[in-house]
Amino acid sequence: MSQWIKKEITKKEIEDMRLKYGLDSLSASILSRRNVTEGKDILYYMEDDLRFTHSPFLFNSMEDAVDRILDAREQGEKILIFGDRDVDGVTSTTVLYDCLSSMGIDVRYKLPSGDDAYGLSVQAIEDFEKEGGTLIITVDCGISNVQEIALAAEKGMDVIVADHHNAPETLPENAILIDPKLENSGYPFKDISGCAVAYKLVSALRFSESKWYKQEVTLLNVRPLNDASMIECIKLRNLIPVSRIDETVVPGTVSISHTRLPEYLKGQIILVWDENTIKKQLNNIFGSGIEFNFMDIRTEISRLFPQFSDSSLLRIKDMSKIARYGNHAPTEIGGFYNIYVTYVQQSLKKENPKLASLEEKDLQLVALAALADIMPMKNENRIFVKKGLESLNSGKVRNGLKELLSRLNLLGRHITSIDLSWNVVSNLNAAGRLGQPELAAELFLAKEPSVREATADRIIALNAQRKQLSVDAWNYGIMQAQASIPNYNGKLCVVMDPRINRGVCGLLAGRLVSTYDIPAMAVTVIDDMAIGSMRSCRDFNLTAFLNNLSHLFLNFGGHNAAAGFSLKKENLPELEKQLKILSGSIELSESEKDSYEVDAELPPAYITTDIIKICDRFEPYGEENPPLLFMAKNLTVTDGIAIGKGEKQHLKLNIQAGKTRWPALFWNEGDRLHKEIEIGDRVDILFNVERNVFNGVETLQLVLKDIKRSSGDMQ
């Protein structure tokens, strides 16, 4: 019996959120039920401007990486980009390759193909040495390649690691490491994709071409208090605050030399808002004998934003969108910082009109990678995917993706995050799963349209092959999987079969998790090597679990919910033995199978076509942000039929909700008609709202997740 769970929330909660953040009541109630109640999280549901993403220079090592690449360009060095075989790895490679080649750098890329192992390989290093290469940049891999990076260093090569996977206990030495999951990375959000890390590196490289790169400036403001004045200073480098001081001074009581200001401001470019007012305030505090060298930035900023020309910082602070979502009252110096950063970013785009189109192209791939690698749809991931979808739906589809979307009948349609996840990602991933990731890279990088078209056709053919391999893997593994569960204390499902294609091990493990609601492992054998994938559920941390087996592995790594490994075939019996022991200590959170978290209950009269506007607001959907699930009661089934020719038929209904008659689909539940539901019944339903396109015509439909007779209609 399924459970429909609607979290109780108070009217006050909804009203507080509605007033503070400008939300409608329904959106506020949905966010509250999803535990999205803090401004810093609500921001990413309300806003879609790239200004709200994090600066690449928050990575502590970013400036070092940029300088090393700029040195390579200046010295005419050869650079190798080494990526991974999946969508995240291919898009990471593409984004960085596009940028470096446009900078005139001698760059090439390599992806693991065929039965190559994951990560930077000794062979790739040795081949690059023969070419006279001196700089390797790994993307979507590298953080666990300790030995390989040491070998590269021995051969006189430098390595930049741009990765996003969990870091091992021992990190690579003699390398520049950019990984948000490193404890000392400096980056405020850990869960971005490998492609997003590459995009951050590219963004930093583009910024390095501007006059603001490495520029140190100090923003200064004076704010009157009751009987004193507050002098506020923020020191910036690459637009990032690196330090701040506040000096509270009673006018006429202290010399400036007895404050921290002279030392702090020494050698700095000092920017102020309204120079005349600031000078008067400082003269009042310290006397008229002090000379300050200011630049009044208000004049420059007002050329771009005329609406601020007569505004004080006191007024500007209340206009700041970022401040609205903060957990403290907006400040004048904070408003000054926000408007200055926005000014610099807009100036860059004005000086380089191509920058916006380059970002659009990149963000289409960053969006794909976030969905493909199952990154949580929160924080800046939401903006990445929003901007990518916005660009795709505006018709500015990048080369390669255009050809693929055309063949998938998605070109010209309204594309959603679900479309990308289910249709585009699965096809692109097929190339890597079947050992030909270079096809996906060629799709994005080929100059000739005919090459891209032929490559798109080959990728779609590979996906058809991948589907059959997935069916075969399931048939090989299902009996073994079921039988294995008691051997692993009922907490783990394990399949080991050399007939399974290595490219579908992860898919098989994921399907086993969905079937049995416990972590699963799928392992195959190639020659003398065993290769496995593991998928998790119910808050079980795979990284910590696999660390206990690291002595058996040649290589392993990944994320807490999805990981991979390789080991010698001869060690498989020992792996099985250790798994049986360790499985006893697996702790799983309570199962949520057959339970549904309801986002909102809608009265029948509210279920109109306008509901799609709310659904669109909560896009993009994905990990940690599933499609909105609505509940409605006492609706009438006006028609119904079982459709489909497969083993399980689907249920197609017409449902009357207020004045609107809705088509509704319930996948694989055709047998409910005339058993649990009859035409004319009044029913309660759980449903998503989706767009359906047929013969080029778009309509809305309800996709049912559960249905039952209304309590007053029980017989």
Automatic annotation (TrEMBL):
Keywords: Exonuclease, Hydrolase, Nuclease. SUPFAM superfamilies: DHH phosphoesterases. GO terms for molecular function: 5'-3' exonuclease activity; nucleic acid binding. InterPro entries: DDH_dom (IPR001667), DHH_sf (IPR038763), DHHA1_dom (IPR003156), RecJ (IPR004610), RecJ_OB (IPR041122), SSDNA_exonuclease_RecJ (IPR051673). It comes from the Bacteria. The keyword Hydrolase applies. Residues 490-579 form the DHHA1 domain. GO terms for biological process: DNA recombination; DNA repair. Pfam families: DHH, DHHA1, RecJ_OB. Signal peptide: none annotated. Residues 598-706 form the RecJ OB domain. Residues 78-210 form the DDH domain. Belongs to the RecJ family. PANTHER family: SINGLE-STRANDED-DNA-SPECIFIC EXONUCLEASE RECJ. This is Single-stranded-DNA-specific exonuclease RecJ. It comes from Treponema rectale. The lineage of its organism: Bacteria, Pseudomonadati, Spirochaetota, Spirochaetia, Spirochaetales. The gene is recJ.
